[in-house]
């Protein structure tokens, strides 16, 4: 389980490193990572976003920089929506599948985090690959994570894997700030609330595993459209219920890391 030969990277200029994880793919992990990062930025913090999802890097698409980065000439990390952004997808084009082994991941991360100019950051948000295999373990052991959040949908198949994710973080001693339930419900044109993936699963899992429940994100076509168009929902439709849910979660993340003994204090925070 331990990768003793792979030392942890030191990040003196970065105050908090937040991992966004999920047990399964397709639950909205990247959507959550991007929107929390932009929400923190809109709250006045200096934020970086690292897309470390080796299986399906999607941050370039979600921030509208897909295919626009020439590794030889583009200064990285990019500046986008006020964020510093780096993606493993800039290194390996999506159509070129690569089998990433532990040492390769370690090397790539070391390069991303120590050789690129991130400046001073209040938060670095990392979009982790889904699952709990060797790649994920290498990542969690290589990067000094302050904390993690786990994204799930309400349905059982997602919850089972989310629970494995929680257990992985416990094993590597990374505090889990809580569970975010995505795609919890949608409001129909008839004004009724629909719950296609059932309901209450995220809260139940949180209770069961004794971690906080950070809240639910509704299904909203604007979430998907904003992601595909390269401007995240919280920037594009800040008044939508989903954007406000992201904003609230970002505030809880700040408050929790601010009160954690290891974290440095952050600028004043008003809870709404
Ligand atoms: N709350 C939501 N409402 C509507 N669409 C969503 C929502 N969350 C995610 N999506 C869409 O679902 C798909 C999967 O989300 P993504 O963030 O890529 O998942 P993951 O990173 O877990 O694989 C994307 O097309 C995304 O736009
Ligand atoms: Mg993703």
Subunit organisation of the chains:
single chain
- Shape estimate: globular
Radius of gyration: 17 Å
Major sheet characteristics: 8 strands, mixed
How are helices and strands ordered from N to C? Answer: EHEHEEHHEHEHEEEHEHHH
CATH superfamily: P-loop containing nucleotide triphosphate hydrolases
**Mean pLDDT figure:** 91
Beta strand count: 10
Helix/strand-derived category reads: alpha/beta
At CATH level 2, the architecture is 3-Layer(aba) Sandwich
Low-confidence runs of at least 5 consecutive residues: 262-272
Q: For the record, what CATH class applies?
A: Alpha Beta
Arrangement of strands in the largest sheet = 3-4-2-5-1-6-7-10
Strand content: 15-25%
Instruction: Estimate the helix proportion, in percent.
Output: 25-40%
Ligand inventory: adenosine-5'-diphosphate, magnesium ion
CATH topology (level 3) name: Rossmann fold
- Total helices: the number is 10
Write down the domain tally.
1
For the termini, the CA-CA separation is 42 Å
Brief synopsis:
The protein is of the alpha/beta class and about 270 residues long. The protein contains ten helices and ten strands.
Task: Write structural notes for this entry.
38% of the residues lie in helices and 19% in strands. The protein has 10 helices and 10 strands. The chain has a single domain (15-259), classed as 3-Layer(aba) Sandwich (Rossmann fold), CATH 3.40.50. An 8-stranded mixed sheet has the order 3-4-2-5-1-6-7-10, with helices on both faces. A two-stranded antiparallel sheet has the order 8-9. The chain is globular. Helix 1 crosses helix 10 (241-259) and helix 6 (156-171) runs parallel beside helix 7. By secondary structure, it is of the alpha/beta class. The structure holds adenosine-5'-diphosphate (ADP) and magnesium ion (MG). The site of adenosine-5'-diphosphate has 18 residues, from helix 1 and helix 8.
């Amino acid at each position: 389980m331990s990768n003793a030969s792979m030392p942890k990277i030191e990040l003196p200029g970065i105050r908090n490193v937040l991992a966004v994880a999920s047990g399964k793919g397709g639950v909205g992990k990247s959507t959550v990572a991007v929107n929390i990062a932009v929400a923190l930025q809109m709250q006045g913090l200096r934020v970086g976003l690292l897309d470390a999802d080796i299986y399906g890097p999607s941050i370039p698409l979600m921030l509208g920089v897909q295919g626009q980065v020439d590794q030889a000439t583009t200064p990285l990390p990019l500046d986008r929506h006020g964020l510093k952004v780096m993606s493993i997808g800039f290194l390996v084009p999506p159509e070129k599948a690569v089998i990433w082994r532990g040492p390769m991941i370690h090397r790539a991360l070391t390069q991303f985090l120590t050789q690129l100019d991130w400046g001073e950051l209040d938060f670095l948000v990392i979009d982790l690959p889904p699952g709990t295999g060797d790649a994920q373990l290498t990542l969690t052991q290589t990067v000094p994570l302050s904390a993690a959040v786990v994204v799930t949908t309400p349905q059982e198949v997602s919850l089972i894997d989310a629970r494995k994710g929680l257990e992985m973080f416990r094993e590597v001693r990374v505090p889990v700030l809580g569970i975010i339930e995505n795609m919890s419900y949608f409001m129909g044109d008839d004004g009724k609330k629909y719950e296609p993936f059932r309901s209450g699963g995220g809260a139940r899992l949180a209770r069961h595993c004794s971690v906080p429940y950070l809240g639910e994100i509704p299904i909203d076509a604007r979430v998907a459209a904003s992601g595909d168009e390269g401007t995240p929902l919280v920037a594009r439709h800040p008044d939508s219920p989903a954007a406000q849910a992201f904003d609230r979660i970002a505030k809880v993340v700040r408050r929790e890391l601010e009160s954690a003994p290891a974290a440095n204090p952050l600028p004043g925070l008003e809870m709404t």
